[in-house]
């Protein structure tokens, strides 16, 4: 599985170019060394502590890029890491430890996956970059020919499948298909100043279309299988996501249990997210003032 952080670092050519000029070039790796480095990474999309250390040693300009991003976020939240220079010096280590203590993380004083994830969550809470999501509508008035539905996917008995996504489903009986077009907005995070937009379109073949419901044939993607079901009487759209090839190395990071999805009212999802972000922002402000009062951060 490609790593989210590595993808960002590789596509940020301009930033890495600046880092190379200012901080010096990484020692060139041979093809064998690079393959060995990649092969040693976990397949779960995360770095462990050993991998972070290996990056710091063998790809120092990339590592300093992550330190720089962390310094900016720490400074924004009042932890005073010193100059934003990508150097893990005494002030930056102290700021990391203060932040990690406030968030109940391991106090390593440096970059690691759990700290990166928490910094991204906190940055999002402070930004408040929420978008209005579509209301739930399931149009069944022309059931014998077509059905339209809009809303936001959620996981039953859990939170939404993705907090910033909008879905439109169009089923045509004469075509024998249901088309699911889902737009996902990835908000600005620790490593990306600007939000990004991703569109995923899936065409399902209809297995059954009777007077009560529409059921699609399973659609297989990498490691997962999706099935849609639309109830005419309940005006309800549900989905089933199950993991396939569970024992393969490529798919081992996916959920082991099946997930039941439901198209929900995006307005309600938006309001729930807004409340959470407001509560989180208040917690961050209180935590930061507590750190200053205790002298934890320089």
Q: What this model shows, in words?
A:
- By secondary structure, this protein is an alpha+beta fold.
- The protein folds into two domains: 4-127, no CATH class; 137-264, Beta Barrel (Porin), CATH 2.40.160.
- The protein has eight helices and ten strands.
- The chain has helices at 4-11, 13-23, 31-39, 49-58, 60-76, 90-102, 113-127, 266-294, and strands at 137-139, 146-155, 165-172, 177-186, 196-209, 213-216, 219-220, 224-231, 236-243, 259-264.
- Strands 2-3-4-5-6-8-9-10 form an eight-stranded antiparallel β-barrel.
- Mean pLDDT is 77; it is low at 1-24 and 288-298.
Number of domains: 2
Rounded to the nearest angstrom, the radius of gyration is 23 Å
CATH class of the largest domain: Mainly Beta
Give me the number of helical elements. Answer: 8
Run of helices and strands: HHHHHHHEEEEEEEEEEH
Draw up the topology in text.
Blueprint lengths: L3 H8 L1 H11 L7 H9 L9 H10 L1 H17 L13 H13 L10 H15 L9 E3 L6 E10 L9 E8 L4 E10 L9 E14 L3 E4 L2 E2 L3 E8 L4 E8 L15 E6 L1 H29 L4
Antiparallel strand pairs: 1-2, 2-3, 2-10, 3-4, 4-5, 5-6, 6-8, 7-8, 8-9, 9-10
Helix pairs in contact: 2-5, 4-5, 7-8
List keywords for this structure.
elongated; 24% strand; 8 helices; eight-stranded antiparallel beta barrel; 2 domains; alpha+beta; disordered N terminus; Porin; disordered C terminus; 10 strands; 298 residues
């Amino acid at each position: 599985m490609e790593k989210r952080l590595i993808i960002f670092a590789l596509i940020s050519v301009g930033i890495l170019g600046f880092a190379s000029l200012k901080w010096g070039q990484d020692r060139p790796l041979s093809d064998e060394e690079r393959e060995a480095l990649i092969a040693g990474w976990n397949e779960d999309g995360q770095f462990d502590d050993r991998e972070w250390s290996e990056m710091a040693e063998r790809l120092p300009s990339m590592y300093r890029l992550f330190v720089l991003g962390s310094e900016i976020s720490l400074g924004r939240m009042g932890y005073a890491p010193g100059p934003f220079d990508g150097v893990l010096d005494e002030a930056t280590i102290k700021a990391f430890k203060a932040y990690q203590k406030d968030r109940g993380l391991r106090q390593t004083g440096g970059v690691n996956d759990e700290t990166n994830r928490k910094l991204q969550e906190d940055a999002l809470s402070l930004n408040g970059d929420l978008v209005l999501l579509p209301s739930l509508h399931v149009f069944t008035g022309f059931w014998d020919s077509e059905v339209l539905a809009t809303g936001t996917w959620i996981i039953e008995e859990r939170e939404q499948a993705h907090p910033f996504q909008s879905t439109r489903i169009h089923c045509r009986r004469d075509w024998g298909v249901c088309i699911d077009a889902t737009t996902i907005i990835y908000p600005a995070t620790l490593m990306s100043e600007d939000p990004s937009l991703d569109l995923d379109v899936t065409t399902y073949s209809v297995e059954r279309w009777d007077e009560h419901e529409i059921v699609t044939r399973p659609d297989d993607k990498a490691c997962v299988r999706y099935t849609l079901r639309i109830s005419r009487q309940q005006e309800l759209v549900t989905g089933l996501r199950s993991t396939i090839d569970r024992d393969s190395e490529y798919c081992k990071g996916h959920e082991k249990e099946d997930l039941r999805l439901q198209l929900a009212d995006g307005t309600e999802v938006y309001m729930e997210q807004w409340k959470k972000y407001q509560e989180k922002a208040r917690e961050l402000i209180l935590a930061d003032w507590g750190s200053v009062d205790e002298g934890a951060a320089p």
